[in-house]
Design brief:
There is one protein chain. The chain is an alpha+beta fold. The chain folds into 2 domains: 63 residues, Orthogonal Bundle (434 Repressor (Amino-terminal Domain)), CATH 1.10.260; 98 residues, Jelly Rolls. It has 4 helices and 10 strands, in the order ααααββββββββββ. The strands form 2 sheets. The protein has a 6-stranded antiparallel β-sheet, with no helix packed on it. A hairpin with a 4-residue loop joins strand 2 and strand 3. The longest helix is centred in the first third of the chain and has 16 residues. The two termini are 17 Å apart.
């Protein structure tokens, strides 16, 4: 499998071309600037997890489809997106399964890291289970604190923010569920 950044660059370009979208049209659909989209396609920028979510939502595709094409990930944990500017790292555990409508990630956040996320596509639900550390989760202003072993399900088609409230690395599992038609594995 090619490196993840290269794969994301080629996936973005392929998604755009398949729809016949210009960078301007893509920027309007995703909420990501034309300049940033161009940099991602040329491999000149490493987008944050939040930016990748905007791209996936704008194209109405699963988040994991940006990391790997269906059937491309052979081993659990093979696809990993490095620490972004927010101090977040995503590791793909199970790619999007169109029959079951879900994908699963392990997310790691550096101490003090905060990641704000724009609403995902309509119907997207996230299931969070903290593995290590303490997670602060805010969904539309409703704040929760989750310790290791605790979990929460929420509608991710609303603004949400995650924060590592501890002094060490915080890890959680994130099962993302899409209602039928809310994403494809393109």
């Amino acid at each position: 499998m090619q490196d993840i950044a290269g794969h994301i660059a080629s996936r973005l370009k392929a998604l755009r071309q398949a729809r016949g979208w210009s960078l301007d049209r893509t920027a309007r659909a995703t909420g990501v600037s034309k300049a940033m989209l161009g940099q991602i396609e040329r491999g000149e920028s490493s987008p944050t997890v939040a930016t990748l979510w905007k791209i996936a939502s704008g194209f109405v595709v699963s988040f994991s489809s940006l990391f790997a094409a269906p059937g491309e990930v052979e081993a659990v944990g093979e696809a990993r997106w490095g620490h972004d500017a927010a101090g977040m790292q995503a590791r793909l555990l199970f790619p999007f399964d169109p029959l079951l409508g879900f994908e699963m990630f392990e997310i790691e956040m550096a101490p003090g890291a905060v990641s704000a996320s724009a609403p995902h596509a309509a119907g997207v639900v996230e299931h969070i289970v903290v593995v290590e550390g303490t997670l602060g989760l805010s969904v539309d202003g409703d704040q929760r604190r989750l310790a290791a072993g605790e979990g929460l399900r929420f509608h991710a088609d609303r603004h949400h923010e995650m924060e590592n409230l501890g002094d060490g690395v915080m890890r959680f599992h994130d099962v993302i569920h899409y209602l039928p038609g809310a994403a494809s594995g393109e």
